[in-house]
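Section handout 9: paired folding examples.
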Amino acid sequence: MRPVTEQEIRASFVNCSKGDAKRLSVPRDLSERPWDDLDFLGWRDMSAPDRSYLVAERGDGLVGVALRFPSQQRGFLHRGMCTLCLTTHPGSGVSLMTARRAGKPGREGNSVGVYMCTDLACSLYVRGIKAPEPGGRFRESLSLDEQIARTHGKIAAFLDKVIGDARGAGAAGA
């Protein structure tokens, strides 16, 4: 992913109002992010523990989505698998992240969800930069490039579900 600015991030959101996008908490360490190793920019909102955000590059520019996840997490004996990067984590390491759909469907209360690494570090797990708990990554026959392409495809499919028929509506269409 290419480095992005706070302004680009705020302008990219498709499932919240422009006012909400202006008020959301953007990471202050953007210049320190490992951009070459990121398939998307993801972060948790420390001021609102049930909120996270994901911004990804698309053919038509950046797409940002506001995510929610339950504050009540599963017990530590359970393991979950991230749908995007196929990393497994114990307990609350994987969460069902839900995104309000863009445009009219979102205003009507429709949302889509995906099980994701709660820390949103999928890109780093795929590349072996960040290590999950022991046994958290399966040994795969796919090359690293193929795993990265699969992750990109899964992100794109999720964003397609969020955007739906509201393509091009931008934050104002939420």
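Moving on to protein 2 of 2.
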Amino acid sequence: MNLTELKAAGGLVGGAMVKKAVVWKHEDAKGKAVTDKFSIFVMPQSFGMIEKLFSASDSEQSRNAKYISTCVTLGENGEEAISYEDAYRLNPGLGWAILAAVHEVNNTGADRTKN
């Protein structure tokens, strides 16, 4: 494969957001089971950006919150960014549900080897 073929095959990350469905199961204030289904937009990240996001240089920040705030937008057309602070404060179940969508779009996650 040459560089032109690699680009044509989608080997280099572009700028198109990917709409992903998220299912969040949780309890409401009265303890009743609730299932919320909604869409988020995930911006695919390059290999270099993912490596930078997960570098050990900034141990004071949550890597997963940083990953969510870098990749995820909300709203009808993905116009609403999630700040690092809001990503950090997400309900854990919701955070993991969103992160699963981010991993799916970026082909990262537990089944991938990381060095």
